[in-house]
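Re: that chain you flagged

S.,

Sorry for the slow reply, it's been a week of failed gels. I finally had a moment to sit down with the sequence you sent. For the record, here it is as I used it:
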Amino acid sequence: EDILKNSSLKFPTRLIHIKTKLHEKELKKNLSLKNIAISRRLLPRGLRIDVKARVPVAFAEKEEKGIKIIGFVDEGGFFIKEELIEDQVTNPLIIKVLGWRREYKSLISKIIKSYKINSNDLESIKITFDGFVILNDKKLGEIILGHKSQNIDVQLDLIFNIKKQLDLQKIVKKIKSLDLRDPINPRLKVFIP
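Prediction finished late last night. Pasting the structure tokens below so you have them in one place:
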């Protein structure tokens, strides 16, 4: 039913007249699918549609034309509208992505994948309108990456190295923030009551 609503595919239609690649492209875009394959079958006669859905790993918010849109993000950084997920979210999502935009998809993906491999302490990714990126981490508090974060690979390595060093040295002070705008000179602020 969703397939018919979200594509120009109309029935009844002769199989030979169905433009499979066009409908695949429409459905992939309109339903935020990871992959889709449509093939014609001669015996038994019909269409075969194989769908691979995106798996949400974080809540997300984005703004389009001044309107806030709520949804989810998958591991690849792709935004999925809330209505396309329905009840498919089985595990509790603790990460939030605020300010999602298409040009930050790969940055968001790198951050989510790095945290998945190294630690599960990521709470949120905030991207301001002008591209300033801030992470919230359970142990390190606010992590300031800066504008557009061209050094994201170095910055992510630093985050996990600093966390490892803090664990090894058994430092128990509450950390307020970590400033990585200049990866050569990271600044750590501790909470002093």
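What I noticed first: The first helix runs from residue 2 to 5.

Talk soon,
D.
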